[in-house]
Design a protein that fits this description.
By secondary structure, this protein is an alpha/beta fold. It is built from nine helices and ten strands. The strands form three sheets. The chain has a five-stranded mixed beta sheet. Strand 6, helix 5 and strand 7 form a beta-alpha-beta unit. Helix 1 packs across helix 9. It starts with a strand and ends with a helix. 41% of the residues are buried.
Length: 242
């Protein structure tokens, strides 16, 4: 059978869901060539026919602009899960005192909350959304600042804060492995800057459909993972990593 080039964005939950897609391809006798890259680069590679399938495009909000230039060249196979972005706080931050983003400007949050909001790479939807939140809610005037970084910088900082009981905001999303480990409460964000709920869509280049084959595409069209399962799959993957 054919070699199918499967690309995923270089984040853990994309890796976890890609492995489920790749398992289907292997069952149909295909050899899989897997690769990962940051958001913009992976969509560029898809647009330039350097990969056959992408797991997955978050549509319409997070990745729609990346897909738009070549959307007519791909087929949408299935929605694997329905992701959405949040600004979250640990469970021990009282909900009656810090319920919404604007509460970060008032006591007790303004006295106790750490000012650094540590994000991931700049191409992620949550990074674009978070920068807009800081600006449009006037959080910068109170000393809050959003910084991009690595997954490890974002996630390890949150877990360290939880271990010490510190008040911290984490720019996050569902699905994500931290939800399998911690109770993270989303803050209300009434301006709607977090993009709403997307559809994590498996896409294939139309010029690769024949290579993938009707039988594999038919099975993939019925693949539904869901947010909770992807969070669990990613958590297992992270725990298994050296």
């Amino acid at each position: 059978m054919s070699k199918i080039r499967v690309g995923h964005i270089d984040l853990g939950f994309h890796d976890a869901s890609a492995r489920e897609v790749e398992a289907v391809l292997v069952r149909h006798g295909h050899e899989v060539e897997r690769s990962a890259a940051p958001h913009e680069d992976m969509f560029r590679r898809m647009g330039q026919s350097e990969i056959d399938m992408l797991v997955s495009a978050w549509l319409p909000s997070s990745h729609g602009a990346y897909l738009a230039p070549f959307e007519n060249e791909v087929r949408k196979i299935t929605v694997l899960y329905e992701p959405f972005c949040i600004w979250g706080v640990p469970h021990y931050v009282p909900a009656n005192e810090v319920a919404a983003v604007e509460d970060l400007l008032h006591a007790p949050a303004v006295d106790r909350m750490e000012r650094l909001i540590q994000g991931i790479n700049p191409g992620a939807g949550i990074s674009r959304f978070s920068k807009a939140i800081v600006e449009q809610y006037g959080l910068d005037a109170a000393g809050y600042h959003f910084e991009t970084g690595t997954e490890a910088e974002c996630f390890e900082r949150f877990e360290a804060a939880v271990a010490e009981g510190r008040w911290v905001v984490v720019p996050l999303w569902h699905p994500q492995f931290l939800h399998a480990r911690h109770e993270i409460r989303a803050l209300s964000e009434p301006k709607g800057l977090l993009g709403g709920t997307d559809q994590a869509t498996l896409i294939v280049r139309r010029d690769a459909e024949e290579k993938v084959g009707a039988a594999a595409l038919d099975e993939l069209s019925g693949l539904k993972l869901g947010n909770a399962k992807v969070s669990e799959l990613e958590d297992r993957l992270v725990r298994a990593s050296p």
